[in-house]
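Thread title: Can someone regenerate the structure for this chain?

I was given the following input by a collaborator and told the matching structure tokens would be attached. They weren't. Posting the sequence so someone can regenerate them.
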Amino acid sequence: MLKKLDFDRLPVIEIVNEILLDAAKRGASDIHFDPLDNFLRIRIRIDGLLMDYSEVPNTNKNNLITRIKILAGMNITETRLPQDGAIKTTLEDMNLDMRVSVLPTNKGEKIVVRILDYSLSLNGIENLGFSENNYKKIIQMVNEPNGIILVTGATGSGKSTTVYAMLQRLNKEEINIVTVEDPVEMDIEGINQVQTNSEIGLTFANALRSILRQDPNIIMIGEIRDSETAKIAVRASITGHLVLSTIHTNNSLNTIERLLDMDVEKYLLASSLTGIVSQKLARKLCPKCKSKRRTNEYERDLLNKVLHKDITSVYTAEGCDECTDGYIGRIAIHEVLLINQEIRDALSNNITKEKLRDLVYTSDVTTMLQDGLEKAVNGETTIEEVLKIIELDEDENLIDDELAKQADNINLVRSLQEKENKTENEIKTLSDLVKNSYKN
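Best answer:
Regenerated them for you:
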């Protein structure tokens, strides 16, 4: 049911405040204002899925867009170029921190408002959904005096939340932490935060060069986007600094390959890389209405291959008044790789991609597929959600091997059956010949 916005009774200021506040209370991460031919469609993203929220007539569209641009500190007369801004306000005792992006389209300006929620970062690493084994590896990483820790994943996968939680743990009086970000998403007391500005030449690489002269213990780079930033980050880590950053890759192996593609020297990467945390977000099951069901043959076979467990029942989404289709909130699915000496030696010796994959996934690493299915078995999410965000051939060479074996077995059985059928036919033919000879 779409929400009715009463532009006849309420001023546009109150309507915009109502939209922002209502979306935040519902737990939305983004608000989309999409221009269409006959109206402006408003959608909100809850637990990773967009849903229709309301419709604004074209007669009121421009006033609403102008109000949002004023709040975000944008140029209201500029409608031909993209703009970025931010909104920090308090509505009904609720502190809201939002990032606003405006994009000109052929039907008008499209606005996306991202609602930032730092509660998970403030609660600490232990509340980010890491398994016990992965949590121990994270703590070991952040306790290293130098090296690079990379948090990887797609846009909106919670990378910043994880990095800020690490910074919260490392933030101590005796330690100098400097960050370079675009933009600075969360103000942390006691940390020196720098926002890049490409228009005046303050890029990640230029800022990093100055930061290295500021006697830092820990450096956080918002994102490694190019080879220059990657090389400076690596060199900073081998000169005694702990470097934290994010990068857009799917898993540990892809991250190593991406850094090598950025022309980072292999011997430097081998000595500097401390660990890689890869993550994706899956919808979390509502604890009040989730129920159990029996696994089907495919699910049971998959769980047996990946977790080496015979699972006969899993949880499923039902739906109630307190959730959306049986889900409420999201949970992170992780892959945590702590670089060991064997992987370091392999990187230095120009190992092939296939051998590197074997080394990475035969070390003490739980893949995202394994972590996701374990959480599905524990009732934190569903198998459907895990398979929606993780492709089997992307994550698990183990599965490929097992399926190959299974296919070989199937072909062997078919071959035997064909031979058996052929033999039966030959026996039947011979038997008929004998019977006919007796008749004659």
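Residues 174 and 217 are 9 Å apart (CA to CA).
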